[in-house]
Amino acid sequence: MTLSPLRQRLLRTACAVGLSCAVSTSAIAGDTAAKAVETYLQVQSAGLPGKVTVSLEGRGTDALPACEAPEVFLPPGVTPWGRISVGVRCHAERPWTRFVQARVAVEGRYLVAARAIDAGRALGAGDVVERTGDLTRLPRSVVTSAAELVGVVSANRVAPGAPIRKELLRGVAVIQQGQAVKVVAQGPGFVVSTEAKALSGAAVGAVVQAKTLDGRVIRGVADEEGQVRLVQ
Fold this sequence. Notes:
By secondary structure, the chain is α+β, with helices and mostly antiparallel strands.
């Protein structure tokens, strides 16, 4: 339930003079938290390859306690992509933290096979066709630009209409030399990440070196998202 600023002020005034407003204040609290969550996710998803739409799922923020200035955050390792859990924290006299379910949809273009593509075939313009859809419902490695197919061959047979994925191709560089990359270390119960600069280019699954901001040189494996994953 979304209330206009004027209606919100009137309802707060009613509360101040002792009139019945239990339902109204709940609506205001939920509306405030909903706007905070949506704004936060829009900022966090800036730069994603498509039109971003944020929606709350289930009961959303309706069941949250009242809070004048809710603080929104993402749990460690969670990125604004697809269905996610979003944290809402309130630093009130009685502080609380709750989690709500949200969905970040990214409407964008991607490539599918226009016909059957045999393994070892060099891809040309007639082999692929562009489609539009929610990229979050596709593999993260789906190819979104024909420029990524220049000079590559299919590593496996691709069926007609199947999305073109980077791991199905040879020679697709997901990391370029000098590119800013995220270095990720993951283990039981934890995910740690930092920023670095790639010292060489790499395709998916290739070993790559990167230099962190404090000057350390690390080695990891390039994944389909263009990140460097440290091998534990």
